[in-house]
Structures are given as C-alpha cells and as structure tokens.
Write a structure and sequence with these properties.
The structure holds 2 protein chains of 2 kinds. Chain A is α/β, with parallel strands linked by helices. Chain A has helices spanning about 5-10, 25-30, 200-210; strands spanning about 15-20, 40-45, 65, 80-85, 100-105, 120-125, 135-140, 155-160, 175-180, 190-195, 220-225. Chain A contains 3 helices and 11 strands; from the N terminus they run H-E-H-E-E-E-E-E-E-E-E-E-H-E. In chain B, the strands form 3 sheets. In chain B, strands 7-2-8-1-14-13-15 form a 7-stranded antiparallel sheet, covered by helices on one side. In chain B, strands 9-10-11-12-16 form a 5-stranded antiparallel sheet. In chain B, strands 4-5-3-6 form a 4-stranded antiparallel sheet, covered by helices on one side. In chain B, helix 3 crosses helix 4, helix 6 crosses helix 7 and helix 7 (about 200-215) crosses helix 8 (about 220-230). The two termini of chain B are about 30 Å apart. The chains are: A alpha/beta, B alpha+beta.
Chain lengths: ~240, ~300
C-alpha cells in the first residue's frame, strides 16, 4: 500500500515534524526511539528543503512521508520502514538499505541505492550516475533513465530501468541482474546482454508489480549481467597490473 | 568538498537583490567548506568607467593616499572605494591597464583580485557569512554573480588561494574538485604570456578559459575545451561580462544542481542552496549532465 494512503488510514494521526521549527536530530532521534509495536506508525516530515540524512537508520515498520526535496543520504540504512519522498532526492538516497522501501516521486542524484542489501527503492523520475553501485541484494526500479557507471561492481539484487542507461552499465558486475527497457549507451567491462528466460520474465513482472508500474510488459526489457570472465585471475593479463 | 553557487538574472526587477540572494545561497553551503569564501558580482555597466578590485593585508597603510597618487601618476581622475581589506578602483577604461601596473609599482603588497567593466570580486579567509558581512555583499546590485566556499585540498588557505579566480577582464571562475594536470597546463599558458599569482589548480582553469577566449572562442567553446585539456575532477561555474556557464567533468562526482525560471538561472552544489529562491517550487530543477556545457548570455 502506498505510504500516502497508509498515513490517512493509520489508527493515529501522523506525527508531524516541521524541519523549519524542529531540528533534523530531533526527528531522527524520535524515529530511532520507536519501540517495536509502537502505535506511532505514520510520520510526516515538512520543509526538508534539501536537508541531509532525513530518516536515516529507521528500524521499525513505520510509514514516513517527506513533503519536499531532500539532500544527501535520505533513508540510508533503512530497515523495514516505508519512506516516500514527495520531491527529489540528493546523492545516496537509500544507501545501504537493508529492508523496507523508499519511493522518490521526483528525480534522484548520484549513487541511489548504493551498497543496498535489501528492500525496494523506486525512483519515479530519473536517477543520475552510479545508480545501484555495489548493490548487494537491493531491488531498484527507476521509471526514467539512469546515468553512467550504474551498477558498477553490483553484487546481487535487481536493477530495473524503464528508460535508458548511460555509459559503462554494469562495469565489473558480479551476480546482480539488470533489466533495461530503453537503450544502453555502452556496457562496462565484463557486462553482457543475456537471454530473457521465463524465470526472468516472472521475476521482472513481480518487481514491476511491487513498484506499482502499470502498462509496461516485462517482455519489453533486455537483461544484462556478468560474463564472469573477471572472476578468476588470468595469468595472460599479468602485464596489466 | 567545497560549495559553489551561481545566479544569472533574467528579470531586471531582481537586480537590486542579487547580492542578498547570492549571499544567502552561499551561506547555506557553509558546511561544505569553512576555510575561505569569495563572491564575484557583475554590476551595471557605467559609461566611460572600468574598475579594478584590489586587496591588501594592511589596508590602512596601502590604501591611504593611493587615490591621489594614482590619479597623478596616470594623469586621469581616479576614485577608490574601500571595503575592509578590499577596495574598488574606478577610472576610464582606456587607462585601466596602466592603472593596474601603476598600483603594483606604487604599492607592491597590493594584490589584484580582478578587473573589468563591471565585475567586483571579494574573497577572504573565513566562513561565508563573515566574508559576506565584511564586504556588505547583501546590498550589492547586479545582473549575475558566482560564489565559493572552500575546503582547501590543493594549496594553502590564504586570501589569494580563495575563489573566485579572475584571469581576464570581467572573467572569473569557481571550482569544486581538483585538477591533476595543472602544472603542465600552467607551463604552457606561461609560455603564451599568461601571468599567475598562485600555485592553485583553479587559477590554471581560469587562465585556460581566458586564453581560449582571447583566441576568439566564445564562453561555450572555451568550456568545451576544458573537457579535453583539463584532467581531474571539476564542476566549474564561470562568469563573463554578459555570460554565465557551467561544465562538469565526464566522471561528474562533484555534485551540482540547477534551477531555471523566467526570472533566473541558478546553480548550487546542493539543492539546499536553491530553496529560498523566488518561485523555486515551480522552477525546472535538474542535475547538469556530465561533460556537457551549459551557458547563458544577456
């Protein structure tokens, strides 16, 4: 259920933090003080105005609606909460997310979802360079385009792009799966186009459904992943080091 | 890190607020660089007048009597308006080069911040708010301006190491990043006759652009050249007499966000710098693409 709906149907009115009146530290401390089973399941953050580290390190399954654009690292290390940014996000949104979900209604800057271990990150606009860099199990769905060097050294998880991808997609990739609907400017070292089998179509359809994407078929995407030629040292390449 | 800002006004009714708007933008990025700060403001052109912004560590000693001595030496009326450690020297455009040389002969400790028909440059060690207050920047009126708050990485924390750097008439540049081939480029530019005040990498970028424009390139073409000729990390914001430009290196790891409305084009290292601009909620806000030149001219 989208967070916006959730906050309206919650048992209690949302707890509102206005960052024009209250400090970011007060907000994050209040979120960290949440005990398991707390009734304060709906939170609203007003006037973020590009603040850094909004709602980082939340570890309870609450819904947080951020009304405006945020700066660096929004929702970093998220564990179980549902964060919706009703604006755009600066660099590192959802960095090292463990579980839960983050939805950005606008665009996201560099390295969205970097090193994420789990959960779902949805960017409804475009993401910038290095989206999903070193991802370790997170699922990322971008409605628009992604920039260059995305999924660099991506280890596991899924990156779904409804638009286009920039240069050097998936450079030095391990076992993450990349699904791109539009064009790819270029593939990075050891990243190749792969066959889309039935299991991938099913997996992708599930991701599109979870991200609330409608009117787009999983068959419209191409799959990319590791050629696995960099996994072991090749003695013929010794001169390169 | 470093924080950089730029504001290019399209709506003349905002011109009296340029100094206040740019100051607020820069102060909002104070925690990106506490070492030094600087601002360049492009004011209204005044007929038959050009200006030089000068700086001295001992302003009381160096600026005293300079107006009369300079006027006598170059045989033309001169006015000098002192603002703290800086002063703006005004005289006729035909005499501006002679005035510059004469100032340095009369007062060897004075440093030239920049010169041109419209630009004034103020920069000092300290936080943006202190620098803005010291030079009363909020009251300044103008058409466009750029600013910088510095976290020094490449050279010393001094007034001369602060940005903006100006190496040509009404040209100046602020930089977030670091260049790796600046020593080579500096040597080439010195061979061409360019003069350098510091060991700073950013001064080389400014001088590179001045050199390109001196060879007949426009601002956009000169910025395009940085992508092949300068190596390193950079987001540059550049001002010329009537222009404003932005370029990021192909890796583009230094942050940048821009906003445009019918009233202005604005640049900030972060969105925080733009949040108090008029109409920002309905502005077109975007991240400038890597290796892509953006420029506007009046």
């Amino acid at each position: 259920m989208p967070a916006t709906t959730l906050s309206k149907t919650a048992a209690h009115d949302p707890r509102v933090f206005d960052l024009d009146q209250q400090s970011l530290r007060e907000l994050n401390q209040a979120l960290h003080n949440l005990a398991p089973g707390s009734n304060e399941t709906a939170w609203e953050v007003l006037n973020p105005k590009g603040s850094h580290s909004v709602a980082v390190g939340v570890d309870q399954p609450v819904a947080i609606d951020v009304r405006g654009s945020v700066g660096y690292y929004c929702g970093g290390m998220n564990s179980g909460s549902t964060i919706t940014v009703h604006g755009s996000a600066g660099p590192g949104v959802g960095e090292n997310m463990m579980s839960g979900s983050i939805t950005v209604k606008g665009d996201a800057s560099q390295y969205a979802g970097a090193t994420g271990k789990g959960g779902l990150l949805v960017i409804e606009g475009n993401a910038s360079s290095r989206c999903g860099i070193s991802m370790k199990g997170i699922d990322i769905v971008v409605h628009g385009n992604i920039g260059h060097m995305s999924a660099f050294m991506a280890q596991s998880g899924n990156l779904v792009v409804l638009g286009d991808a920039g240069d050097a997609l998936g450079d030095s990739i391990y076992e993450a799966r990349l699904f791109v609907r539009g064009k790819v400017d270029s593939l990075g070292a050891d990243c190749i186009a792969k066959e889309m089998r039935a299991e991938h179509l099913d997996l992708l359809q599930g991701l599109l459904d979870r991200a609330g994407v409608t009117g787009v078929k999983s068959s419209e995407f191409k799959r990319y992943g590791s050629a696995r030629t960099l996994y072991n040292f090749n003695i013929d390449n010794a001169d390169a080091y | 890190m470093c924080g950089i800002v730029g504001l290019f006004l399209k709506d003349k009714s905002l011109e009296p607020q340029l100094g206040a708007m740019l100051s607020q933008m820069l102060i909002s990025l104070s925690d990106r660089g506490p070492d030094s700060a600087g601002i360049a403001i492009y004011g209204a052109p005044s007929k038959n007048e050009a200006k030089i912004t000068i700086q001295s560590a001992k302003p009381e000693r160096d600026f005293r009597g300079l107006e009369a001595e300079l006027a006598k030496a170059i045989g033309t009326p001169v006015t000098i308006a002192v603002k703290s450690t800086h002063a703006v020297v005004r005289t006729t455009p035909a005499k501006i080069d002679e005035a510059r040389e004469t100032i340095q002969a009369l007062r060897p400790d004075i440093r030239i911040m920049g010169a041109g028909d419209v630009v004034e440059i103020y920069k000092e060690v300290g936080l943006p708010e202190a620098v803005v207050d010291r030079f009363d920047v909020r009251k300044m009126t103008g058409t466009h301006g750029i600013g910088h708050t510095r976290m020094a990485t490449e050279s010393a924390v001094t007034t001369m190491g602060a940005h903006p750097f100006s190496t040509g008439a009404d040209q100046c540049l602020v930089h977030n990043g670091s260049l790796s081939n600046h020593n080579n480029v500096r040597r080439e530019l010195i061979r061409e006759g360019m003069k350098f005040e510091t060991e700073n990498d950013t001064e080389v970028a400014a001088a590179y652009l001045s050199s390109q424009m001196a060879h007949g390139k426009n601002l956009g073409e000169a910025l395009e050249g940085t992508l092949s000729d300068l190596d390193g990390f950079f987001t540059f914001v550049v001002g010329t007499k009537n222009g404003f430009g932005v370029v990021r290196d192909p890796i583009a790891c230094k942050p940048a966000v821009m906003a445009e409305t019918d009233q202005y084009v604005a640049f900030g290292s972060e969105y925080r710098a733009l949040t108090k601009l008029p109409g920002i909620d309905n502005a077109r806000v975007w991240e400038p693409e890597p290796a892509t030149v953006y420029f506007w001219e009046h």
